[in-house]
Amino acid sequence: NTVYLNGDYLPLSEAKISVLDRGFLFGDGIYEVIPSYFGRLFHFQEHMERLENSLATIRLANPHTREQWLAILTPLLIGTQDQYIYLQITRGTAPKRDHGFPENTPPTVFAMCSPIVPMAERDSGVKVLTMPDSRWKLCNTKAITLLANILHRQEAIDQNCAEALLVKDSYVTEGAASNVFAVIDGVLMTPPKSSEILPGITRDVILELAQKNGIPCKEESFSLAALQTASEIWITSSTREIIPVVECDEKAVADGKPGPVWHKMNQLFQTYKQ
Ligand code: PDD
Fold first, then answer.
1. Which of 7, 65, 98, 191 pairs with 120 at a CA distance of 20 to 30 A?
2. What is the pLDDT of residues 45-85, one digit of tens each?
3. Residue having the nearest C-alpha atom to atom 2 of ligand 1
4. Do 33 and 85 lie in a common domain?
5. ipTM of the complex in this document
6. Number of structural domains the chain divides into
């Protein structure tokens, strides 16, 4: 398994960084997860745009152009299987631990590729648990600092759920590592982009497919109370695609089976991937 680290391609077991790396000491870095289908990186430009925004937010210079990134990442792909690139950039290894930015320190750039293994429950649906969103105020930044997300996800796993749906001021924001959609009164809804959610690339594709195919949809916040009336709930991400939720807080969503809008959208998405 070959990975990329600071200009070199090497076996995963030989890829090493310093304990003084600011990613390790402070979680001072950002990342991207870019899926690849049929040997092509999916919505590469959109992932690059989000990467640029994340870097700008943490005031880290982008070490490469989009063309250079494409040239760096493409050799990591293995055949044409469904897979994803994990790309991480940290503020590098400074001579000592100090909160302020180090001077003259090159970033640490790491990338690896993993197969996308479809969730076993993909077609039967998953359970989710709602909980108060304990994250910070920069949720639109794809920061590697994911402790709150991890604690949320694990709390859900501990209750035999696949995802935590996060609630802020009684409104649903997103999942611990996914965006959320709900069909409420016949309209497909997802919260609008803001600093409270990560602008998911999968989310954008779904909105575009809904618009093109006459599925009524709205980018509008919905409350937890509204979510409890939804006929369908989905979670979406680059690694899980579109997953139907059939149980929320131990209550069945509608009849407890993936709904017709999900079936339609999943079909549209599978066709679109090609
Ligand atoms: N996570 N919201 C959060 C908090 C996420 O971490 C993710 C993705 C998404 C969905 O974004 P996209 O559709 O661009 O994957 C929304 C990735 C997969 C991860 O952290 O592994």
1. 191
2. 999 999 999 999 999 999 999 999 999 999 999 999 999 99
3. 178
4. yes
5. 0.99
6. 2
Q: Does 198 contact ligand 1 (Cβ within 6 A)?
A: yes
Neighbouring C-alpha atoms within 13 Å toward the C-beta of 50: 24
Task: Find, among 16, 12, 15, the residue nearest to 2 by Cα.
Answer: 12
Ligand 1 center to 186 CA (angstroms) = 26
One domain, residues 69 and 200 = no
Give start and end residues of each alpha helix (H) in the chain: 22-26, 44-57, 66-73, 147-158, 201-212, 224-227, 260-273
* Annotation marks residue 142 as catalytic: yes
Q: Is residue 83 in contact with ligand 1, taking CB distance under 6 Å?
A: no
90 Cβ inside 6 Å of ligand 1 = no
Domain end marker among 94, 115, 136:
115
Q: Domain residues for 59? A: 2-115
Ligand 1: residue whose CA is nearest its atom 16: 178
Burial class (CB in 10 A: 0-12, 13-18, 19+), 167: middle
pLDDT exceeds 90 at position 120? no
Among 58, 83, 115, residue at a domain's last position: 115
Verify whether ligand 1 is closer than 6 Å to residue 146 (CB atom).
no
Claim to verify: residue 130 and residue 201 sit in the same structural domain: yes
96, 137, 142, 212: the catalytic one is 142
